[in-house]
Amino acid sequence: MGYKKVDEKDITYIRQVIGDDERVLTNGDINEEYSHDELSGTSSYPDVVVRAKSAEEISKIMKYAYEHTIPVTPRGAGTGLVGSSVAMEHGIMIDSSLMNQILELDEENLTITVEPGVLLMELSAYVEDHDFFYPPDPGEKSATIGGNISTNAGGMRAVKYGVTRDYVRGLEVVLPDGTITEFGGKVVKNSSGYDLKDLMIGSEGTLGFITKAILKLLPLPKKVISLLIPFPTLEQAIDTVPLIIKSKSIPTAIEFMQREVIMDAEKYLGKAFPDHQADAYLLLKFDGNSVEEIENTYDQVAKLCLEQGALDVLISDTEEREESIWKARGAFLEAIKGSTTYMDEVDVVVPRNRVNEMVTYLHDLQKDVNIRIKSFGHAGDGNLHAYILKDQLNEQEWENRLNEAMDKAYEKAKELGGQVSGEHGIGYAKKQYLKESLPSVDLQLMNKIKQAFDPKNILNPHKIAQV
Questions:
Q1: CB 3 within 8 A of CB 70
Q2: SS3 for 65-131, per residue?
Q3: CA distances (Å), origin 344, targets 64, 300, 370, 403
Q4: What is the spatial distance between Cα 84 and Cα 73, in angstroms, rounded to a whole number?
Q5: Cβ burial, residue 319 (10 Å; 0-12/13-18/19+)
Q6: Of 204, 265, 207, which is closest to residue 42 (Cα–Cα)?
Q7: pLDDT tens across 3-55, in order?
Q8: Where in this chain does the record put each FAD-binding PCMH-type domain (predicted)?
Q9: Which is nearest to 283 in space by CA: 330, 248, 318, 247?
Q10: Euclidean distance between CA atoms 8 and 94, whole angstroms
Q11: Which of 67, 92, 188, 238 could form a disulfide with 356 if both were Cys (CB 3.0 to 4.6 A apart)?
Q12: Are 253 and 157 in contact (CB under 8 A)?
């Protein structure tokens, strides 16, 4: 596709639309962070960055870009891990982080309407102050809601409550040609034709630009208690997870962690983890409306874990203990990042009863490829995060070993009936693995959907299934 190169005439038009030179960045004013996302492996600068404040501004810029065939890249907080928000064809980048207003809390319909730049941690705090609960809980709390919707972010509470898709009722969207439209609404049920709202969720900014979201809320659980359960081996810990799921005492979260990652988190935070007696742990969270209700739920699970060889069951029933455990868990990614020179990640998801095989395979893969790999993840929903570390390898060795490790990890996930990504998306960095994983007819359908929304392919080109 031949794209028009942004010139002074285009920038003059953009400045007229925005009417505020401080919100239009060019040349040396474009911060280096706009050239990459959190992992920084995929890098490319936009020609101009627009810090939009309204759907109308975005609509005018998209209409102009469509007429002149200028590529446009949507961007939120830039916390992604697969290059989704990187401007591969340069052009215009529209940053929606200033669109950060909470527009309406509708207590009768149990919904909240927000702009896409609202941060996850701001949304969670706001609704909890009003005695409501927004369950999706991705690890990166400084991500924007628009970004969460664009990648269908999951997080730790998915085992009980589901993922972002399950909490999006309606979207306002600017289409690639500048048209502003709405998908879904406040209704609970909707069988009115194709579900265009669900097509937008997880589309990583390739089909339209999200400018408003209506999200479903739940009543806030009154109590939360966690169990930290040490096991002699990771195998015993992981093997216990399907039994917990079958017990019907479903925890809010079931996480697995290994001692070596916990040590990284301790070093990163400068705080000791509450327990050091084991090489592997399950971390379970339970919520409910009373301590008695939660105790009745977790008592059965605690006994089951001890029967499966757990060394102990540590109950985190104070705010201080709760914070120390979950703060360490929340720091895993940054801690691992801080322990090496660079890293790349695998975000595979496998059926829950195959988690142990996948974890064991990733552990053994370190020796096969001669590279360090650290992993943790959401054992309750089969989503594993494996980080491949560069350390002191030179560029050629790094590329060779990284590619070999990635190829083998994704091939194993496919063999186990899994998928390439559980929650981080495909973006630019993981395209080849998606193509190897899915039937060609699926990829063709994805590209035809992209063409239907965006015949000129100006919106976030080269992402997901595109060439």
A1: yes
A2: HHHHCCCEEEECCCCCCCCCCCCCCCCEEEECCCCCCEEEEECCCCEEEECCCCEHHHHHHHHHHCC
A3: 37, 39, 15, 10
A4: 9
A5: exposed
A6: 204
A7: 999 999 999 999 999 999 999 999 999 999 999 999 889 999 999 999 999 99
A8: 42-220
A9: 330
A10: 17
A11: 238
A12: yes
The CATH number linked to 179 is 3.30.465.10
pTM: 0.95
Looking at the structure of the chain, the number of domains it has is 4
Task: Give the pLDDT of residue 250.
Answer: 86
Quote the pLDDT of residue 455: 97
Quote the domain boundaries for residue 198.
102-219
For the chain, percent of residues with pLDDT exceeding 90: 92
Last residue of a domain, one of 71, 98, 125: 98
Phi, psi (5° rounding) for residue 428? -95, -35
Give pLDDT tens digits for 240-278: 999 999 988 889 999 999 999 999 999 999 999 999 999
Q: Is residue 214 part of a domain?
A: yes
Q: What is the pLDDT of residues 60-93, one digit of tens each?
A: 999 999 999 999 999 999 999 999 999 999 999 9
Residue 259 Cα distances to 236, 278, 281, 321, angstroms:
14, 7, 8, 18
pLDDT at 1 over 80: no
Write out 222-276 in H/E/C secondary structure. CEEEEEEEEECCHHHHHHHHHHHHHCCCCCCEEEEEEHHHHHHHHHHHCCCCCCC
Q: Does any domain span residue 238?
A: yes
Q: Check: CB of residue 356 under 8 Å from CB of residue 238.
A: yes
